[in-house]
Amino acid sequence: MRHGLIACAVLMIGMFAGSPLLAQTASSPAAGSAQTIPDLSGIWEEPLYQPDGGRPRFDVCGEPACARLLGAPPVRAITVEEPQMLPWAEEKYKAVRQGIEDPTASAPQVTDPWFSACMPANPARMMLSQVIGFELRQFPDVVLLLFGGPAGEADHAVRRIYVDGRGHPPDLRPTWMGHSIGRYDSDTLVVDTIGIKEGRRLDFQGHTHSDALHLVERIRRVNQKSLEVEVTFDDPKAYKNTWRKKIVRGLAPPGPGFWEDVLCEELLRMGTHYSAESKK
Predict the structure, then answer these.
(1) CB atoms near residue 266 (< 10 Å)
(2) Fewest CB within a 10 Å sphere: which of 66, 148, 204, 245?
């Protein structure tokens, strides 16, 4: 009888040890050790956003930044470190900036593949753009960025940042957005992106890039109404150094965040696109 009870107890212990519930409980992190994930969600506006839903204006309180109306810093791209270009990249840069003396001014839109050929912008340019906003939504396995603008410049582009611990896949096929993986570092989302198609620009000034472009972004909430995005560019085929740019965005007020336009396709259909003008 005694041997029978011992055998029964051993059998029950074995059954519980193999149960999914017990295995799940055993593998759970200890109390208090769970990672704190910062809340970065919201619609982070471009400077032309109008809280009252009116037409975009380029001059608000002397600056093109409606975020000032909301108590947030102006939305502005700042070059933290200047790029040291290799000869071919510098030649391309100078070609699109002929006659432009202000280094912060944008290159002509008619020479820009984004405007002239409806090519999607790369992720760095969209994150740093002063005419594009995005909605950021956080999930346990992925962070989604839904892009828009006051007149559809982003054409509803979507970016996925995987935060489930995966790495970049081998033999990655280049895409417009590349492949992004992220991790939380205290109050900051750190994003690593590779596999970005070449042939486009990194910013409105006209800096180009190769297929070796590697981006590292640090996204953090400065306060309740401000989001800072800092991008580090590493492209050994185009630049001698790594360099950085950053922007501070304001939180949009409640209400519709983006205009439901697909500007590029509509302009092409109407024959009023930049590409049509360049052929005249």
Answers:
(1) 14
(2) 204
